[in-house]
Amino acid sequence: MDDALSKTVTPRPSSARTLPNSPCRSISRGSPAVCRFGADVPASFALVGDSHAGHWRAAFEHLALAKGWGGVSITRTSCPLQQALRDLPEPRRTQCGRWKNDVFAWFAAHPEIGTVFVAGLSGGSGVVPRREQSRYSAGVDGYLDAWRALGARRVVALRDTPRFRGDTDTCIERALRRRQEAGTRCAVPRAFGLSRDPIVGAAARAGAPVLDLTPFFCDSRCYPVVGGALVVRDANHMTGVFSSTLGPYVLRAFDRLTGS
């Protein structure tokens, strides 16, 4: 890696949390809130899930423009599109369930959306399992049930991004002050960064394609700075800057999966 890049970080961690996501034009402010991005043509695909779907939008802007596609983004914090009961306090649990029902109704009214890219947080408490069922299995079943509810659409799963330690921003700022390589100095072991992802398990059972960009984050370790770009704005959400750098690789991976 270029030595200057290894000791430079854009954006700085101190400002990353306040930077806006990739632009998206609101077309529905009700439930679900829907916004448009990509080419100025009728929408044909959707990016759906919790905030771990939303942080991919800058990358999918590149895909959409390269393909000449219009896209919609439908996301809700802490509420991935799966049918398992979310382990959330009330009233957020009920609100999440209502939002998912609204999303399914929206898709039923918009048959022109032929491809749905889905993503969600893989770690955390996740879902409430049934008796003698693991949280992971409940998550897999929840995704499968949700995808069936989407009808005859192509579903493409996004493997979740790695998590980092809660003090990663402090670690990076300290490394920069000391002229150290922040990416390697503040990296985490791969086993810490990557959780077993129920969306990948669901895709395997459904025969759905998976976009897995893990090699751009991790080798034996996962790095919070790559090529001078700050990867995460907190412990587990990508920055728009890093997401945008992944656009060409999302396009290439999608073309490889679909034989385009």
UniProtKB/TrEMBL annotation:
<dbReference type="Pfam" id="PF19040">
    <property type="entry name" value="SGNH"/>
</dbReference>
<dbReference type="InterPro" id="IPR043968">
    <property type="entry name" value="SGNH"/>
</dbReference>
<feature type="region of interest" description="Disordered">
    <location>
        <begin position="1"/>
        <end position="25"/>
    </location>
</feature>
<feature type="domain" description="SGNH">
    <location>
        <begin position="31"/>
        <end position="250"/>
    </location>
</feature>
<dbReference type="GO" id="GO:0016787">
    <property type="term" value="F:hydrolase activity"/>
</dbReference>
<keyword id="KW-0378">Hydrolase</keyword>
<feature type="compositionally biased region" description="Polar residues">
    <location>
        <begin position="7"/>
        <end position="25"/>
    </location>
</feature>
<protein>
    <submittedName>
        <fullName>SGNH hydrolase domain-containing protein</fullName>
    </submittedName>
</protein>
